[in-house]
Every structure is written in structure tokens, then in C-alpha cells.
User: Fold these one by one.
Assistant:
Number 1:
Amino acid sequence: MDEKTAFPGGRSWAGVAGAASGAVFVAAAEITAFLAARDASPLLAAGSFVIDIVPQWAKELAIELFGANDKLFLLVTLGVGVALAAVAAGLLERRRRWAGVAVFALAGVAGLVATTTRAGATPLSALPPLVGAIAGCVFLRASIGALRRWRTAEAGGAPGPTTDRRRFLLLTTIGAVTAVVLGTGARIGTAATSSVAAVRKALRLPEPLSRVAVPAGAELRIPGLSPLFTPNADFYRVDTALTVPSIAPADWRLTVDGMVAKRVELSFDELLRMGLREYAVTLTCVSNQVGGNLVGTARWLGVPVREVLALAAPAGGADMILSRSIDGFTASTPLEALTDPGRDAILAVAMNGEPLPLEHGFPVRMVVPGLYGYVSATKWLTRMTVTTFQKDQAYWTPRGYSAQAPIKLSSRIDTPRIDKEIAPGTARIAGVAWAQTVGIERVEVQIDGGPWQTATLSAPVSADTWVQWFLDWNATSGSHTLVVRATDRHGRMQEQERAPIAPNGSTGWQSTVVRVGTAG
């Protein structure tokens, strides 16, 4: 038979062979990653590459549609894409020998590029995609070869097609099942053995030199109102890490370099010995839409960034710190925001009374009041380079976002909710408002286009935290439109005009509709 001629029938089975070969490819890569290079999974590296190149609009859409599940959606999408490509490779290999193998080889090259160009890559990072590609190619050749013999014998009436069919089915079934079991086990094993969850759980931090004083009346405790301090499990997460980076405190190092008099390297213990203090700070993501929930307040335990920078003595002319995460993410923070003695910018090691959760930057992250997270709140921090905005750009700057991004004055209605009807009579409209580093002076609510009514504010913990507010209302049956706006302590009112989140945060007064039922 001509090497380039397709054998009779078997298109569907060729797709099955391709899918099984794809499973073998991925499984072999994951097993190799487990044994030799824990951070070099080709699938995860490809996902990280997609995150890096995705356009701004797509990133905003994913966060808006899927929230904290945006990365899960990406992984599922990648998995489906890999499966379809593997099926296509099987069909190509049926039509022409080596055509499907070429697809797997190209996938191996793509995986090789993705794994070896990630932050922290080592020479061993090349092994998982190479081993995976070789295993996938060998299995594809073997399974399509078995299918070729079966279908050719069956079409030509030769004896033994039943035996050939059984061989093909056994090969693909055993290969696929083994690949799924071993590949899944390797991925779980990699996650478990590279995880520092047990280390974090056992970590005991020293008592802080100071604690946050929470005044009476800071927590209004109104049903449906966001709590003063957001529980760690409910705190929003938006970052570029497809999988949570894993680094033990004993292995952690922070390097301070660039335009400095002295290059500094600190261990985790050395950082703790500088003395921890507790701070209450509200964080906001630049992706937070008007009325959105990508904002939260926590008690943070940490060391002032200015004290760490003082060890290195930044040079004159520097105006930016380029902070870097272990996964390669970078943020551009104005140097003055980190050295200002009136602003509590810290290197945080704890959140709400416990070591930082893994997904929130364990063991060390930055927390800077008054700046959106993408220019300040670097998680899994490993380096701070003293530089200038003219010389360096951070991760999101070339992707359409401003290099500097102060958090904008904003307010939100938490209750009543648009999706929940309330009873007529006395009702309480409540929400939160924030103006970091300045503080909230006033919150006003408008009902059905009527006069603005001043809400009652909770006692502020500090100018760096949000405040809660409420307004009592005699709700009548029907639909009602509620609008909220805030004014900060400098007398500046919240921007009314709507603006998108890019390039430096959304603006606009939140407006919501409330349904009030009938009496009785």
C-alpha cells in the first residue's frame, strides 16, 4: 500500500486513537514534571502564555463573566482545545503517515517554548514537553498502525480482522485509561508535594508591635451589608497566576536592587525580625466595575516598605519600584507612595489573623493603600527594583493600563438587592464607600429621582479602609430606583460620568432597581 494513501474506513476510530494519544502526551509530560521539574507542566505553561498575551478586552470579559473562576474556564478551554487537536492529529495520521505525528511534534515544540520561557525555568523544564511529545508520537503511530491493520484486513476479507480489532481496542483503551489515571495522579502529586499548605499551617508569627484599634460603631451589622473585614475565603482574587505559586518561607528571599547604594537580600526570618505591625487596609482591583465586588478590607500584618527600602538607600532620580512576583508578574509603584511616612505601604505576611493564604501571596506580598492592585499589590513577592517610569514598564502597562493608578473614590449599595423583592414598610438601604488615604465625609442616596438624602456612616477605622453606611426608607409597593454617591474628606464628590475600567479604573454612580412587594 502507498505510504501516503489512507486506509479504508476508520475515521471515527482514528479520532479515538488521536484522543488517546493526546492523553498519553499530557500524562507523560505530567509524570515527567512530577519527577524532574514540578513547575514545567506544558498545559499550565501554555495557559500562562495565553494569560500573558490575551488582549485587555478579553481579560475584562473573563473576569466579568467568570469572576474567580476565570482560570478554571481557561483550563477547561485549553483541555478541550488539546483534545480537539489530538483528534485532528489522529485523522491526519490515518490519511497520511507522519502527518499526525508532525502535529504532536509541533505541540511538543510549543510546549518546550512555553515551559522554558517562564519565570524560574531551569534546563530540566525542557524535559516534560519533550517526553510528552515523544510518548504521544509513539503511541499515535502504534494505535493508528493497529487500526490500519484492522480496517485493511476487514476491507480485503483477510482472516483475523476480529483479532486486529481487539488489539486496537485494547491498545487505545488501556493507553487512554492508564494515561488519565497516571496523569491525574502526577498532577495531584505535583500539587500536593509542591504545596506549602502544611508549612503555612504550622507557621507561628511573632506578636506584632502594634494592633489596629477598631472604634465602636465601625461595624453596623446590618443584614445583607458587607462585613467591615472581609473573610479570607470571601476576599476577591484577581492575578495572572494560572496555578498558585508555591514557596516555603525558609526558601523565600527578597532582593532589593537597581538604583540603590546597596543591594539588599532579606530572608523571611530577617524580615520578621524588623518588627511586624498590624494595619487595616481596603484593596480594590482595577477590574472592579461600578457596584462590583472586587474590593475588600482586611487586617494585614507586615513591615513598612519604607524601612526595607531604607536598607538599600534608593538613589536620587529614582521614581518607581518595579516589584516582581515569583511567577514573573511585575507592578510599577511610585517610589513616593512606598517611602511616604504618612502612608502605610507594607510587606504583608498575614491576613485577618493568620499567615497569608496561598492564593493571596504566601509567604510575602505588597499592600499599598490608595493604589489599584495591578500597580502595587504584588503577591508572592521576590524582588523590588528601584528604577524610573521612563526606563521600565510593568506587566499591565503595555497591555493598555496606566503606569500609575490611584484608587478612585467610590460607593456601593449592598442591600436591598436587585434580585430580591422586599416587603413594604420600613426598609434599610445600606452599603460601603471608600476613598483610600483620604477618607469618606458623606454618602448620599437618591430614591426615584428625588432629593439626595444623607446616609448615616459607620465610625471609620482609618482613612485607608472603607466605611459602612445606611439610610432608613419607607418602602412602598412597586419598583424603585436607588442611586448612591460619596464625597471624600477633601470635599471631592464621586465622579458621576461612567468610564470603563481601562486604563485606570471605572467611574460612575451606582444605580439599582429595587422591587417592593404588596402589603399583606
Number 2:
Amino acid sequence: MKKSLASLLAGIVALGSFASVGAAAESNDPSNSGELFTSSSPISLTDQAWKAPAGANPEDKVWGYLESVKGNLSLSAKDNVRSKFQITEQKTNVKTGSQHYRLSQYISGIPVYGADQTLHIDKSGNVTSLLGSVVEDVYQSIPQPLIQLKTISGTEAISAATHDATLTYGLLGESQIAPAAQLYYFIVEGEPKLAYKTEVNVLEPEPLRIRYFISAEDGSVLFKYNILEDLTGTGTGVNGDTKTFETRLSGSTYQLYDSTRGKGIATYTAKNRTSLPGTLLTSSSNVWTDKAAVDAHAYAEKTYDYYLQHFGRNSLDNNGLQIRSTVHYYTSYNNAFWNGTQIVFGDGDGVTFKELSGDLDVVGHELTHGVTENTANLEYYGEPGALNESFSDIIGNSIEGDNWLIGDDVYTPGVAGDALRSLANPPLYNQPDKYSNRYTGTSDNGGVHTNSGINNKAFYLAAQGGTFNGVTVTGIGREDAVQIYYNALVYYLTTSSNFSAARTAVIQSATELFGAGSAQVAAVTQAYNAVGVH
């Protein structure tokens, strides 16, 4: 009963840390013996627009199109697509008039994990593309609904995950996000298994955000991985510059709280401990001396403003989500991370990093993980995880916009001109810039920080231009490039998107924004040719 995951522009989910310094040991965890979303075969449904029947409403167009491509969806002529797929989200791009749908494949009313799709209808009402993943032949070969094999509850699955994490890390602290368990069909070595997806998210004994897939049949761990890899007042920032920012007066005390953006931007201190969010920072005057806090607060405002001004996006969830930042986390902590609810900054050890909030790249990078979680939700493992990291690098770097380096303002403070990553020259910091040179081991969640260099290089070439790997790209400028990549992230990519899927998503995004024969489409196409992604 082997199943393969067929990609409709293939791709793998979601959040990470800023830093991955040094080589990690290869994983020997038996629950992680394979990759997520294996046996993929790319399918491109983008060649020509599908002409919708006259008078059909938008959802009827979705179902009509899916009926017309049943052969690509591993369905027989007698199958009803409405019973095999569900629409999970619909958005309209106000810039282009295009409508974008997210769908998921279902078996007996239960979603298939990673089998997500995006479908796109242009302003004329015609379907232009379908991207994502489906599980092949699963309907014909499952003899009975696996729901009959379910013997444990979601609560028991949460307990199983907690028990496993406790055995590995020791006694766990308080959960940072209330544990929940969602039932899926999860593909393990080609076989569909009924499984609960849940998460262990704690700060003690160390920051952990471990995603678990627990068998609904016997409570065993089918797969797991840590998606939290180690990694208008005035004030002076980490690098000595003076900043202005919004604060709030409460009685006679000023608070590092901005109530003018979305549902607020609030900055806390952990006081070198590990409790989050910590204590809201206050001052008797509106002149702030905590350098790490000044930068965290001011750069969160800049990131919010960038998303609003460039993309029309209201905070990370496009609904004004409050942005919370905590500085002075633990002692000499060499990382910053997004934990699903807020951003956290260490002070660094003064050698590898100084205060990590002191770089706009870092703040923009981490907050973009929050945007990704609310849109494409790219799996933080393997190629989708590398794309997750890359989109955080691309948008974080574009917010700062003064060079092509990541982390240069806080990384190795004793080494002039050093950085953590370079979009222009990934190999300078031990990243590949061609798909043929990608890392294929299991360290770093399958190379999420390493292989991000491939997509970063493609973005750089599209924006800046140049000749690379024998391919010449005429640059379109950073602004057009970042608009294309943001549009691809928000509307086209899915949980399981790989590099091939990213190429098609970016090309389709450029086509939507600028037209099929545009210089922008030519640039992004040539950029992916140059880095060897097809």
C-alpha cells in the first residue's frame, strides 16, 4: 500500500531561529530516519489559463477546474473532487484582482498532512495555476478508513509527546503555547498512518519547540524535530546610534509600548532569566538607556512599517497581531528566535554575537517567520525549511536594504566586515549557491540554514543581475524582486514546497504582478536557471 507524494510544483514547515553556527552532529534519532514528504514527483499546471464557464461563481470555478485535472490529482473519473479536497482559505490580491485559494486533500474527512494546494484565478475569472502536493492512489488502496484503527485521544497524544521530550531533555517547564493535537493522515515511508500533530513548546530546561507526529493507533512517535533550532521616546542602540520610537505614558511612568501600530508593539526584559515574556520595560523619563531594548522596539516598529507600506500587510497575521519582543534572555545567549507567539533576543557572549536585537536584519528575519507561519507555513525541515529560512533572510535583508549581508551588525563583533550569511555570495559563509551543491544530510533539520543560500542567491540575481554559472540575468531591482517573492510566499507556496515549487511559485507570482512577457518574469526565470533549480 505504498503511496507517493506527487507535487503540483513540488516542495516541505515553520519557524526557526536566526543563527546556526558550526556543524551540528548527524541525527541518529530513529523517529527521524527519513525525510518529510518523500517520493515527490513534480507536476506543473501553469502552461495555459483554464477558461471558466460563463456565470460560474468563484468556488464553482475551483471545483470545475479540479474536475478537469482529475488525472493529475490521482482521482478516477467517478471520484467527486468535493469529497477529496476542501477549501481552507480564500484571499483576493487587491493589487492585481487575482483570487487565491488554499486547499487540502482529505481522506474520509481527515486532512493529509503536507497535501496542500494553492489555486489561482486571475482578474478575468480564469484559473491560471495549481501548485502544491497530493498523495497518489491513496483512495483506491486503503481497504478501510484508518479512523477505525484509532485507539488514543488527542490528549493522550499530547501526553506521549511530553513524555518523549521529558525522557530526552529532562523535566519540562510551563508550556508557552497551550498544547493541542490535530488528527491527520501522515505518510511514513510511503504508507498513510493516522497521526496526531502536536507540539512541545517550553523554555525549561532549554528553549524547545518540538513538532511531534504521534501514532493514533499506538501512541508511538512517528516523526519529530525541533523547529526552534539553537538559535516616541529616544534612546541609543547597540551600535551607538540614536533612535526615536513610540512609547506609552502610564501615570508618571513611560512604558516601552507602542499603541499606534496594529494591536501594539511591546518590549520586555527577561532580566537574564528564561521566563517569557518577562517584565514590560519602563522608565521614569522618555530617554531610554537599555540599548538592546531600544533596538528591539525600534526595529519591530520598522518591520511593521515595512510590511504595511510595501505590501499593505497589517502585522504578522495581517490582522494587527501584537508584536512582543523580549531582550536579555538567559545569560550570554547566542541566538534570537520566534517561538510562535513572540520574538526573543539573547545578549550574545561578546565573541560570537553581541546583543542580537542590534541588527535590523535579525529582527526582520525573525518576525518574517511569523508571517510565514500565517501564510505558506513552510515546514521547518529539508527544502521547505531552507525556503522558510531564505524568505526570512530575503525580506529581513530588504527591510534594512543597505547591503546583501545577514547579521553583519551583531555577528563576531571583534571581526570587522564579517557576517553570518551573504545573499550575494553564499559560499563566503559555507552555504551553497547552486542546487547541485546542496547539503543532503540530516544536520540542521536537513540543512535549513545551509541550503537557504540557494534561494537567497536566486533572489540576489533577480534583483541585482549578473552572470552566474554561465547564465546572464538582467536585474529588476530589489523592490520589484521583493514584491514578487512576498507575493509567492503569501499566495502560492504551501507547507511542502521544495526548491522546484519555489521556482514555479516565484515565476507565477511575477506573471501575476507584471505580466507573462515582462522583464520581471524573465529575470526570476533566469535567476533560477543560474542556480540550477528547474
Number 3:
Amino acid sequence: MKKILIYIMIILPFTSCKKVLDTVPTGALVPQTSYSSEAQVRAALAGLYFNLRASTLYGSFYATRLTLGTDETYFYNLNYGYNNYSYTIVPSTDGDIGTFWRLCYQSINYCNSLLDNIDVSAASGTVSAATVRKAKGEALFLRGYYYFLLAQWYGDVPLMVHATQDPSEGQIERTPVKLVYDQIISDMTAAEGMLTDQTFASIGYSEKISVTAVEGILARVCLYAAGNPVNDTKRFADAKKWAAKVIESRQHTLLSSYQQVFLDEIQNRYNQENIWEIGFNQNATGAVSAGGQFNVFMNIGKSTGSGSPVVYDGYSYGYVRAYPRLYVSYQPGDLRRDWNLSSYGWAGLNKTYYTSNQIWSRQISKWNREYEPDVSRLTQTTSQVNFPMLRYSDVLLMYAEAENELNGPTAEAYNAINQVRRRAYSKTPIIYNFTITNAGSGYTTAPAVNFSTGNATAVSTLTSGAVSLISVTNAGSGYITAPTVIIGTPWAANTNYALNTQVTNAGKLYTVTKAGVSTATPPAQASGASNPATTGATFTYAGVQATATANLTTVTTGDLTQGLSKDDFRIAVQNERYLELAFEALRKSDLKRWGIFVPTVQSLLVDIAGSSNPKWNMPIPPMATEITAADVIGAAAAPGTNIGSKDILWPIPQNEILLNKKIKQNPGY
């Protein structure tokens, strides 16, 4: 392993509105004396979290790469290449792979330095015993978490639990991954005991580790240790225990709205569902910011700026596209689908709504940049949006999974998964889609869409003067029967009509060709212009009013079917994680631990061929002027074509192999 000498701990300077990042160290601290005041301890702890926010970790690379090459997303822009995301041989010299390794070990050494020195250092100063205890708890947890990241992607890794003191310590063999997991669980378990009074309620925000965050991540670590490749199945009981502790703490709950979870992350608000998150902030020009990039990569593509100087309003590369499998896996009435996946793309500065069969065009909209505050939304390549590390819904699903593995689909397992599903589904009928019964004719601009009752909203799209698409923008709620769809603006008396306005009356469409105030007499002719002496303004016949009907979902509680077998319940949990936790950097690890990573990605080729669903056509998506539909097919197919057993792990960085003569490369690289 590359030697890391930390005789002097240097914590990178930054500023943030987030409490965990409030302390801004200004110099170098010697470990033996660097924890002798409360302020120094806070500064040191800030440094332990810092690399999680780096662009190579959750700032961009890691968060993005863990969605790509799964059945969630693919990387489609050939101009920038997609080899690193589609399982061609990733070289051991890959910069991101190497930096990921280096930053994890750097952070581990920071944690080790604190753990090695804080007792002696704190005793020489004015640091309270409670501060020392909590600092050691956070350092133990974070050391375990950085090793958790390494173990997932490199397998066996060198295990070091003390700060580097001598260059010879860089020569160390890889520790078997099971022993690494044992150390992770030991560290985190010790941390849990040290942080019992550091709760979400006492902290008031979720960027600093709380005791329930430790417990929830412990449940995750234990599930991973119980699965492939470690297969330490006794850990299922541990996973259940730790998930149960979070549930029984009553510190956390599901928000009533799935959307609100992510609106809060977009707007830097804290809530009881987001147990742990990585915080980013974006300040006005001239102030130091700490924005992240994951939301710029994983969003609705929008690259066109406007104005002088150019302003990029909601800029996103849009290179990460969702596979249709995810879209069609959501059932009617599942409110998560149209929040997680975009219903429109950007054509320049204009929204282009998708037809129901344009499912290859869908992009990620879970953290839609349109909802960011101006200072963040107008920033081109960084964003203030927080990244979710652990949510309460994940804890419930982990509990359901562990309980099923131990005891089958018990009432407790059903209760946990059903809490997540009930929140996902509308409790009353909602508008799911529309049937256009008459496309109409003569429209010059897309007409408004309104409803006789309810709070739903929709927009229309024109093709050659006729309504070709009506898209739901708000599905509404509380419907008993489908509302009447009103397309266009009905004529009204005593209204001042501007030139070129279009109105409808008695199934006909009219264009105002002479402005004026309407009388009590509406236009009724089927050709030509009305007499302004009779109608006030001049209304010229333009064509036929479009008509449509709204289709409602059926009422459902979302509850999972009773009486499932253990195997079927396992599949149900796997699918629920797919739908609930989409794009949260968990899918690839889940598929690996379930032992279905490679075949799942390979099965995408069946989807692309269209044999599993003939409606999965391949229209060229918006922003596709630089590529063809064939290019999209090639990009989408590449992961399934190239993936193999080598891709379960990443290569050990070549620089580490050169420096550490005792370390060996992973198979296939």
C-alpha cells in the first residue's frame, strides 16, 4: 500500500452553512497536541468527513458510477465515451479508481491519527470526557465506513488500524474481505456504544453521524457481509437487530410525501426520514462554496444557456439515461415513477413532453434542478443538493429482508415493507393518463388543459395544428369519477380579447383576428369570421376543438400480496428497493450481494431487443443532435454485452501495486 505519513494532520479549508462543516481549520496541527481544545476536536472531526464530499466519492464519481451499468441507468453520450461505464476493461491506471482508493486510505489514516492520539492530547487540555468519547465514536464509525467502501469495490484490502508512522508500514498484504468486514462491524459497534446520546433530535440535522445513523449503516454492512462474496449468513440476525434498533428508537419516520424527501435534500432542509446525508452548499459568486456534481450528471439534460453573460438555468449534462425496465416496473398509481423519472426533456429552453411509449428517453428527475434556489440552480456545474446516505425507508426494507431470511415472510416482515409501499401509492384514484378522442385542428399554440373538478394539471403538445399528446404534470387526488377534460380556453362574454387569442365554443375553435371586448353573443359559425358588431371582437373559425378523457388509477393501499413464499418475498423486497431507492448509489451493491449482478445486467439485452415488450421503441431523445438512435442502442447495450465476473470488483490501482510489493491485482485486470 502507498505509504501515508501523517505526522501533521492537514484538514482542507472550506466553508459551509452545514453544522458539521462549520469549523474551518486554518493551519496544521500536530497529532500529539491537536486535540487539546474543543475547537481543535471539532476541526479534526470536520476533516474526517471531508473526503466523503470529494468529487471522486459522493460529490460525483461514486454516486454516479454506482447507478450506471445496472438495470437503473446507462451512459449514452458517445462524444465523451462510455467505456468506463460499460464494463470494457477498466485499467488499473484509471484516475478515478486510483483517487477513490487514495482518499479512502487518507481518511482512514486521519481517523487512526485521532484514535491514536486524542486521549493523551485531550488530557493535556480542556476537552471534556464526553467530547472525547463522541469524537472517538465518530472516528471509529467513519474508519469503518471508509473500509466498507474499499471492501465493496476492491475485495481484500490492506487493513490498518493505527496511523502510519514508518515507510515500511506501506508494505502490507491484503486482508481477507471477511476479516475486513469483521473489523468494520467491530468498529461501528463500538461507535454505537459511544454515541448513545448523540441523536438526530439532539443534533438537529443529518450530516453528522447520530447513533441511529450508526445502527442503520450497521444493518447495511451486516446484510452485505451476509451476502456475496462473504456469505457470513449469521450476519442476517445482526442486520435485523440493528434495523430494529433504529425503528424502536422512534427518532425517525417516513414523510407522508415521497417527493418531499427529495425536495428537502434539494433545498437543504432536514427531516426525520433522512437519517444521514452528505451536505453540499452553493453560495453567490465571490463566496466560497462546496457544491457537488452528482446532481449535474444525474438530471434532466439541459445545456443551453441564455442572456449576457450566459446564465445556465438548471444546467445538466443529461448523460445518464434510465433503462425502460425501471419505468415499466412502477405500477399504475405508484407516485414514485413520475418523480424519479422525467416526463419531459429540454429542447433548447423549451420543455418537450414524452409520449407514453417514449420510455427510452426518460432521465433522472429525483433531484430536479428546477426546484433548487436561484443561487444553486443558476450555477452551471455544481449544485447545493444533498446526497442521501441512509433513509428510514431503507431501514424498513432492510428489516423486512433480514426477517425474511431468518424466519420467512412473517407479519413483521410484511409490516415493514408495506409501510414503504403504502407511502408510495396514492390512497385515492389519480389521473394516470389520457385518451385523446379527437385531436382537433387549427391550433397555433398548444392549448391549455383544465378539468371540471379536482387539483390535477396537465399540458398539451401539438403536431401539425392538432393535439397529439396530453401529459400529466400533477396527477391530482381524491377523484371518485374521472373529471371532464377541458382543452383550450372557452369563450366568455365581456372579455377583452387580444389579437391571435384562440377560444373554443360548442366544439369549434376560433382565432381572434380583430381585438375587442366580447358581447353576450358567442361565435357559432363553422367557417369564416364573425361580425364584430354582433360578437364584439372578430372570431375567425380555425378548426375543431380537441377532446380527451382522463383515465384514473384504481384505489390501492399498496400492500404486498399476502401468502408469498420466502423466495417470492425476497424478490418482492429486491424489487421494492429498486423502485424506492433508485439512483441512490445502492443498486449495484445490492445486485452484487444478492449474487445476481452479472445476469441482471446481461438480461437488459433482451429488453433492448424488444422481445420482452414490443412497445419499447427507440425514438431519438431530446438533446440528441450529437448522436443517433443507433448510438443510443449501442450505449444501452454495451454494459450487457461486456459485463463479466471481473466486474464484480474494481482493479487495485497500479500505483499501489508498484509501491507495495506485497499486494496483488484482482482477477481479470
Number 4:
Amino acid sequence: MPNRLAHETSPYLLQHADNPVDWWPWSGAAFDEARRRGVPVLLSVGYSSCHWCHVMAHESFEDDDTARYLNEHFVSVKVDREERPDVDAVYMEAVQAATGHGGWPMTVFLTPDAEPFYFGTYFPPAPRQGMPSFRQVLEGVAVAWRDRRDEVGQVAGNIVRELAGRTLGTGGAGAPGEAELAQALLGLTREYDDRHGGFGGAPKFPPSMAVEFLLRHHARTGSEGALQMAADTCEAMARGGIYDQLGGGFARYSVDREWVVPHFEKMLYDNALLCRVYAHLWRATGSDLARRVALETADFMVRELRTPEGGFASALDADSDDGTGKVVEGAFYVWTPQQLRDVLGDDDAAYAERFYGVTEDGTFERGASVLQLPQGAGVLDAERLDRIRQRLLAAREERPRPGRDDKIVAAWNGLAIAALAETGAYFDRPDLIERATEAADLLVRLHMDDSARLARTSKDGRVGANAGVLEDYGDVAEGFLALAGVTGEGAWLEFAGFLLDIVLDRFQGEDGVLYDTAHDAEPLIRRPQDPTDNAAPSGWTAAAGALLAYGAHTGSEAHRSAAERALGVVKALGPRAPRFIGWGLATAVALVDGPREIAVAGPRGDAATRALHRTALLATAPGAVVAAGDPDSDEFPLLRDRILVDGRPTAYVCRHFVCDAPTTDATALSAKLSN
């Protein structure tokens, strides 16, 4: 019989709906039940595409004996970290503080007052490599709860008090300037892997936000070193196994420092951020590789992640059936030499082996290889390779596909909207702009209520019950602002303003600090607050970037000042930990540059207007905002009173609404924006 998760919208929770464990979703009712029964709470946090979450579920949560013990001694609560990032953040902070590391599945034992007292991540079904079995952990916790409850309560109280004392204030530190940005660049240079690209060692994650900072820093200062790090990192990733050489799109991370073997799950946020970065790299350099990867990644998102409602699904699993009924990681993506010969024949298979780096020994497991485009493979026959690629892609489509997490997360759709809108504009792909617009329409129609407050998720056209967090407001506003700049539709600027007003009203604290949850959100053991950029921009830096752009669009000093105050944390963290606040640094570069405000006044259908508009969009000026349309329109404040010079479409380049001399010439506009 299905448990209480059967009525949830989260695919991850629904995967556990038929477990023999009597799961509860996160709710006050679950803790009331623990209080009534006098038992502790097992909190298990994971997400749909998490490999080890599936492993633990199969080993323990599908086991009848384990389930019976859980049901007798605990109230079990299952949380999708992507639906409830606030719950995940609070308890992950406790796990990391207690154990020095974290990860998923996250396993935390709580009192009925939601106070944590014992922590872990994955526990095996039998003792292994110094780890106790899950059953041993359950029995130990149950005994401690029964025999030493006062001690357990004291431990839990101490943990909560310690967490509550962790507050992050910037206290008027001010936004970072030239010195802090130079120190951040130096810090990235020290951590840069000059042999393989990227930063640090294994596992190696795609540093999309740090690369965006490097591109903006180069655009503002001319630093060739910054551009080289960005370009070499992007090329290394695009040639590596982390990039899907057949279908486009990036995996979550590489298990090695050479980008060869990925963890095969594909996340919407990674691909949205990387699509935009490669498009910006092309804008800066004209690189054919950057153009190809940007477009292939955009096409991957539309083909593989777009939902019938017009939004974008969260992820594709790493695991799939290998054709024998066994579910293994990477089965959909890897190839043996024999599999290549079966599809291509001997001659083309030998060619594909060389160009894709497929070997008899394999680069992955069981003699299989992850496809790459290694350097030095010989002279490229583009036509032949494209033909081979299409045949392999068609053959791969016959394999059992990885599962897809169909829930729509507002924040990640905001990132996708920005990426698709800009990529479509740069490469004359109106279909991509249309897909971005449809996703934005869905967010307005389904995720925003009458007061413009956001819901975090939806699935199959049904909105979830969880309130949007700060990253939802910041990233969706970012997407709307990008869409406004590309389409010339001022409604998107207005919607962004609604969201950012809520940020100022409900997420901002003293001295400009920002919190991940609204002040009237469900209270947890502490109000989460994390400014560091991890897999995606933090809510803090996402909001700062959108506030700055909206202030540039509208002249709103309130929004600009809020952005400047929020960037105080970047001044504190950027020089010390630049890898972990890349979007904050990119926003700080835009602030130092202005950002520039570009108004293109003229009839939308006019060829000269389009030429000026395209030139403005292709400008590398960091964080520049663009408004294009009829000067008589009230949709964009930047366009008000912008007269047409000699009756011709005219462009104005401004900072703080103070403008240079207008121009009607696209070449002259490009020159203005390159200084």
C-alpha cells in the first residue's frame, strides 16, 4: 500500500511512495506524531538524480525488516532537497559542523522539536570500511533515545544554540572595488589547473560562475590571463567526457581532474549556466567551439528537459538499464569498440575510436569508454565525424533512457530563460527565444500568485506547496530581465520589479544582509543564510545581480543601493575564496563598470533598429542592460525622452542615466561599448 508520499508532486518523494517505510513528508503533522508517540524523527534528504540516494533506498528503505524497525521506533520524514533547499541547508550545516563533511543522502536524527542530535549521509546495509550498518545506527539511536533521553536533549539543544549563533553580517563593508577584484583574480590564478583547465583537483566541477567573472574582468580590463583561463577551461570541458559529445549538454561533474569520466547525471542549472557562459565566450572571442557548444547545450535543454507545459525539468539520472535489466551508472552514454563496430562498421568505427578516445581497455568501467574529443587525434573530417555522430546518436536512442526528474524549479527555469534568450539572440535562433518566453509565461501563470509571490516547484501543471526561496526570486528576475533585453517586451521588466520588491520587503535584514527564506516563511531551527555560490548562484548573489540590473534599467536608487549593500559579502569573501563566490564577483565587476545602460530607440521592425539592438546585445560591457523599442513607449524608463537623431533609430550609452552622445551607426555603437 502506498504511504503518505503518494500525493506529493516531487518525483523523488514519489519514488519512495511504495516503500514499506511509513514515510511522512516534511510537515508539522509529522513532528506532532513523533511527539504523540514519544519517538525521534529520522530525516532523510536526497534528490531524484542522486545515485547513492537510490542505492540506500534499494538496500534499506525497500527492505521489509529495516522498514518494520523504522516504523516501530521512529517517525520517518523524507525531503527532496530541491523542493526544500531551506530544510536541506539548515541540517546540512549541522551535518558539516559535526562531521566535517556532507552529502546526499543526508541522514539526520531529530527530536520531535526538529532539533538534530545525530548525523550522517549514506549508511550501508552491513558494516563496511569503518562505517556502521544502517540497522546498527538505528538501533544505537533508539537505545540512546530510550535510555539517555536527557543527554540526547542536551546535545540537541547545544547544537541548535550553536547554529543560531551563526549570523553573517556585512555591516556596511561596502561593495568590492578594484583591489578586491584583483585579489580575487590572483586567487583564481593560484588555484588554476594550467594543464587541464578548471580549478582544483578531483572531483572537478564546471566553474561556470568563475568563468563568467573572468570574461567580465577581461572585458573591463583587457586582462589576457583572465581570458585565457576562461577559454582554456571551456575548451577542456567541451573536449572532455563531462560534455556529451553526441547529444550535447554537460554532466554534473568529473570524477577526475582531466574531465574524462563524469558523474553522469545532467542538471538543468549546470546546462543553463554553461550554455550562457559559452555564448558569452563566443561573444568575446568568436570561437567556433564556443558557438557549437552553446547551441548544442541549448538544443539539449529543449530536446531533453522541456516539459509539455513549456517549462524545463530538473535533471536526468546518472543511472539507466544496461540492456540486461541491471541499472548502472552511465550505461546510456558509454561505448565499447565492439559497440562502435556494430553501429558503424569497421572503417568508421576505427575513425570514431581515434577521435572519441575509445579504447579496448576503456576509460570507464567494464571496458567501456566515455566519448571525448582529445587533442592531437589527427586532422578533423568534419563531414564524416558529423555523419558518425548522427548514426551513434540514433543508435543510442534505442537504449533504455535515464529517468527524468520532471519537476519544474522556478530558480533553475530562470537561469534557462536567460541562457536561451541570449543564445537565441546571438545566433539568430528565434525558436530558442520562443522557448524562453514560453517558460517565462509558465512561471508567471503557474508559479506567481496575485501578489507576485513565487512557488518553488510545479509538476505536470500542478503547483507545489513550498514557497519560493531567495534564489527563486533572484534567478527568475534575472531571466525576466534578460528576456526583456532580448525581446523589447517591457512586461518582463515589470515582472522582475514585482519579484525584486518582494526581495527588499521580505528577504532583506539589517545592513543589507539577505536571508534564504522570507521573514514570514515556515520557521526552522534557524533562518538559513548562505552567500556562497555552489552549483548555481546563491540566492544572495543572484538577488544582488538582479537588483543591480533592475536599478540600471529603471534608475531606482533603492534597488541599486540594496545591490551594493548585498555585495559587501563579496568584498569579504571574494579575495579569500573566489571559486565559491563567482557570481558575486561577476556582479561586482558589473557594478564597477556602471553597469552600462544601452537604450536603442526606434521602430521595432526597422532594420536599422535591429542592427543597433543586435550590436547592443553583443557588447561585452560587463552586466550591461539593454532596452529597445519605440521612444514613445512607457515600457522602459531607459527609452523615455530618447529622441531619434535625424529621424533615424538611435542608440544611447549611459551610466546612472547620464548618457554619451547618441549615435545612429552600429559600428560607432560597438566602439563606444568596447571602451
